[in-house]
Structures are given as structure tokens and as C-alpha cells.
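Hi R.,

As promised on Friday, here is the backbone we talked about, encoded as C-alpha cells. Could you run it through your design pipeline when you get a chance and send me back a sequence?
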């Protein structure tokens, strides 16, 4: 899901923001926990879309070349490229690589045989496996 969302949003890599969407879309404990706080897949997608839209609009304003719609107004050719991008794996952004490495440490510290969405969520929240808590 994070891969396809990154491609859909026209991103060159998978970042922490989009990984959050992937976590919410997984039917594991992290999803249930986030739902208790009224964090849903739909709301997360809208938030990330707006965030990328605002970033694109700000960078266009800085360049003095403001275009209507930013990255979300795509030509048919770009939309076709976007569909093709879903067929390839995008690289993970360096911050996400650090998050995933830490998620592995968290899973190890909790004696888990696999890294699950809850470990990634804890890592995104800044959980310290050595301290056993979020700072």
C-alpha cells in the first residue's frame, strides 16, 4: 500500500508519511489502536494528500511559477506514467530506512519473530527499544 500510495502521489520514494497509510491499511493491532483514536485510512490519505499538495504549492510560489492544482492536476501522459510507476518498487527514503531499522530492534526487544505494523508504528512514534518507552 505504501508503495502504491507513493506512486499515486507522484513521489520519487516511500517516506514516513506514506508508510503511515500502509500501517493503517494493515489488519493488525496498530490499525485497531489508531482507530480507537479516530485515525482512519480515509483521514490519513486526505492528510498526506493535503500535505504534499501544500508542499508543492509552496515550492511553486517560491519559484514564482504558481500553477493551478500543483502536483494533483496531472496530464493524461503523467497519469499513465503514474499507473506504470505502481508496477515498480520505489526506494525507501533515508528517514524511513532508519524507522524500519529501529522497528526491527523493537521487534527483537519484544521477542517477536516478525516485524509487524505495530513495531513500525512504535518506531514512527520514536519508541526507544533500549529504554522501552516513547520519549
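Update: got your reply. Pasting your designed sequence below so it's all in one thread:
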Amino acid at each position: 500500500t505504501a508503495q502504491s500510495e507513493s506512486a499515486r502521489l507522484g513521489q520519487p520514494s516511500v517516506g514516513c508519511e506514506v508508510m503511515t497509510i500502509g500501517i493503517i491499511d494493515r489488519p493488525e493491532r496498530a490499525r485497531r489502536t489508531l482507530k480507537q483514536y479516530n485515525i482512519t485510512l480515509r483521514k490519513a490519505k486526505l492528510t498526506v494528500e493535503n500535505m504534499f499538495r501544500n508542499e508543492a504549492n509552496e515550492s511553486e510560489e517560491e519559484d514564482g511559477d504558481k500553477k493551478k492544482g500543483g502536483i494533483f492536476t496531472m496530464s493524461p501522459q503523467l497519469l499513465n506514467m503514474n499507473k506504470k510507476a505502481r508496477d515498480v518498487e520505489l526506494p525507501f527514503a533515508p528517514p524511513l530506512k532508519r524507522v524500519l531499522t529501529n522497528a526491527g530492534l523493537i521487534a527483537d526487544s519484544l521477542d517477536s519473530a516478525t516485524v509487524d505494523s505495530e513495531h513500525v508504528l512504535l518506531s514512527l512514534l520514536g519508541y526507544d527499544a533500549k529504554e522501552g518507552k516513547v520519549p
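One thing I noticed while checking it: DSSP finds seven helices and no strands in the chain.

Thanks again,
M.
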